[in-house]
Write a structure and sequence with these properties.
The chain is α+β, with helices and mostly antiparallel strands.
Length: 417
């Protein structure tokens, strides 16, 4: 099953400045203005490596990496270890604490069913990440995966380490506190390695990066001297961790007018339809979170509530039961495709579809004319993610949004032994 090993990590040194000013969010959620702000705060911010710009951006990232190594802004650990990474945060006034381990994981093809995906990917994003790996020979950000450890062995090792003083601890602009420790004790590392050797890993976030790592490995006819393309950096979190939070990703319709009459006419056979005041939207979705309930908003002071009727056929495209029971699958198939004619290719290319995790942003986008309508949904459950992966299926793109995101730049992986 999963083969892991400690990482000889690349990290920022004190010469780089305050670590909080050196890290960044994942590359795919950073806007141009946010990138500029990160660099203005500290010219050594990892965003220069993770999200380079310009015509020769990948080679420029490699050049910057070498400059930082030569100047001592970055340095590699002399001794390999497994890192413990904790995020403490609040959602709707509820406090959460999420703890994972950062290590190297041996790359396996999905067909081996050791590392399992749950979501479709986009070709353009994979090519971008592949070019960056070729230009730098590094993983700057960690793939986020889940595991099950009913024995509690890994939790015991983590608990012992987190009682000690950390390497880093800081709070970011979203009021998320990030803390990092390093496990070097060989017996503790052995417990983690042996426990995970019996486990499957489920990718939560980072499908593009995992597939890119496979492509990078498979594209090497001969690995350069000292290179280790067989492993990729991952942050692993127990599926039973009470800090796991998954946000919904709402759908925005753009460049296509959608009316309530059209939705009613085309969806009334499959959904019970009612209208409620806009102020009741959150409560209505919350009430229907164990069913298949959606809110459609296209302006005004009320919204349309769609609730899938009991007994409505849900075998979607001959896919697995796990896939067919997902809120997002039902929305895509019954409403976006069948009712509105927005097919899979259209969705993949984001012709008429955009995404946001913010309900407020979705509603405001309709009000200010950036979107013609919004479909608001409930979050996918972690148990559903596991079920889809075990069924060998994949959810539609943007089905999950794990919160908070892992910081890029705390721990990095050089593809050399």
């Amino acid at each position: 099953m999963a083969v892991i090993k400690p990482i000889k990590a690349l990290k920022f040194t004190e010469k780089a400045g305050n670590i909080a000013d050196c890290v960044c969010p994942p590359y795919d959620i950073i806007s141009e203005s946010e990138r500029e702000a990160l660099i203005a705060r500290n010219e050594n911010n990892v965003v220069r490596l993770e999200l380079p710009i310009g015509e020769d951006r990948y080679n420029e990232a490699g050049k910057t990496l070498n400059e930082w190594l030569d100047s001592g802004v970055l340095a590699r650990d002399e001794k390999a270890g497994i890192y413990v990474y904790r995020e403490e945060f609040a959602v709707d006034s509820v406090e959460y604490c999420l703890t994972g381990i950062i290590c190297l994981v041996k790359l396996c093809e999905f067909s081996e069913k050791i590392v399992l995906p749950h979501e479709e990917t986009l070709t353009k994003a994979k090519q971008d990440r592949l070019n960056l790996m070729r230009g730098t020979g590094c993983n700057f950000s960690s793939i986020y995966s889940l595991y099950n450890d009913e024995s509690g062995n890994i939790a015991s090792v983590i608990g012992k380490k987190t009682a000690e003083a950390p390497i880093h601890r800081f709070t970011d602009e979203e009021e998320v506190t990030h803390t990092l420790w390093k496990i070097e004790n060989e017996s503790d590392i052995a417990v983690i390695v042996d426990t995970l050797a019996e486990k499957q890993l489920f990718i939560a976030d980072g499908h593009h990066r995992y597939e890119t790592a496979l492509n990078y490995k498979n594209g090497l006819s001969n690995a350069p001297d000292g290179a280790d393309p067989d492993h990729v950096m991952m942050t692993l979190v127990d599926m039973d961790d009470k800090g796991l939070v998954v946000f919904p990703t709402h759908r925005l319709i753009v460049d296509r007018k959608v009316t309530r009459d059209e939705i009613e006419r085309k969806c009334e056979n499959d959904f019970n339809i009612s209208y409620l005041p806009l102020c009741d939207l959150r409560a209505a979705l919350k009430k229907g979170e164990n069913g298949h309930t959606y809110a459609f908003y296209n302006g005004g002071n009320d919204f349309m509530l769609l609730e899938l009727k009991d007994g409505a056929a849900r075998n979607i495209d001959n896919r697995s039961d796990a896939y067919s029971d997902l809120d997002v699958s039902i929305l895509h198939s019954f409403v976006l495709e069948n009712a509105l004619g927005i097919d899979k290719e259209n969705m993949a290319n984001q012709v008429n579809l955009r995404y946001t995790r913010s309900m407020d942003e979705a509603i405001e986008s309709v009000k200010n004319g950036k979107a013609s309508a919004a479909f608001l949904i409930n979050a996918t459950k972690v148990s559903q993610i596991k079920a889809v992966a075990l069924a060998g299926d994949k959810m539609p793109q943007k089905s999950t949004y794990f919160y908070p995101k892992l910081k890029t730049g705390l721990v990095m992986n050089v593809l050399k032994k």
